[in-house]
# Entry
Amino acid sequence: MRSPTTRLAAGVVVTLVIILAYAGYTLNSVRRMREVQTEIVDQNRKAALQLIRIQSDLNSLALALRDMLDQTDGYPLTAWAPQLGRIRENLDDAIRVEAGLAAGRRDPQQAAYLAAAFAQLWTTIDKMKALAETGPPAGVTAFIRGTLEPQLQALTSLTARLLVQNNAEEQRAAEQIAGIYGEIERNAYVFLAFSLVLVLVVSLALIRSNRILFERLASLSNQRRELAQQLIATQESTLRTVSRDLHDEFGQILTAVGAMLSRAGRSAPEAFTEELQETKVVVQETLEKVRALSQALQPVILEEQGLGPAVEWYLPVFERQTGIAVRYTKPATAPAMEAGRAIHVFRILQEALNNVARHAGVKEVAVELNSAPLRLRVADAGPGIAADATPGVGLAGMRERAEILGGTLRVETSGGTTITLEVPHG
# Structure
């Protein structure tokens, strides 16, 4: 099975790329919206204020001309020149500012027409001033009414159209901003939906990959468990065969050798009697060791009398072999367990005590056996198992035997090492 890491990493990369792309798009849209708002809306508003200022100056100019036409006290027309000059200065400033704000957005022909119209207005006013200085008042009045006032009305109308045009552009800018907002909102929903779909697809792929991996691990675990059980069964069969061979064949051979030495001692010369007796003692000790080894490999007492007596027989043997005292707490009632299952409890006890002898460095170990439910506890006051220690084969075998029994094996290392086997049903 291929590892899903590559596909999952690719999914993460794609997700990050999409997020970055959407973030870039959003930032660009906000920048466009800011440009529209700054360059169009704000400039249109400022230009509109200048157009209103121009209209106000044109109205002031129109009122001044009306006052010039309506005056009846003989006030000379040339006396209006300073007021007309102030209005002209204000108009020129307003026209200059408005032209700068509208630059690049207004039609060049329209801008040229507006500049020409105001230039013509000032030319006409200059003519009116010259006529007022040299000509009769009646001629100036006719000139104002026939030439200057129509020009003022035309400029007022043109300024009004520019204001309407400005308002229309501002409205279009507002619609453009609303469109950008709408586009961002729509794309946000699209991105959210796509992200949800992408997360769902990646999650489903991850769930599927994990499910396949766990199924594979479960299959491997089952295979390992079956293999471990087969190995344990093979080990027990081998130990049983070796034990039987030691007891039957080597035991019989040593027994026969002892009998032959006894017969030889009766007929041998007196000089060899002592040596034959020593040899007979060695053979007898070897026979006892072979029988003890046979019992340790496959205790017959376990099959004949059960788990309790087998434990009581083995603990003194362990004491003699290792010099470690065993403080044994026996069960109130003998554990009822068939020999095929009891052998696993016995092997766990053997392995636990062997670990104490090899690693604990103590002079005493506590063994407790309970029944209904069966509970075996082996505790020592040694240094315990190091946190970074690699579990050995013995501990793994103990766990496998606990699983075969359908029980649990706990290893506690606080204040020494305590191994507890619990089997719910004996």
In short: The first strand starts at residue 325 and ends at 329. DSSP finds nine helices and five strands in the chain. The chain has a mean pLDDT of 79. The chain has two domains: 5-206, 299-423.
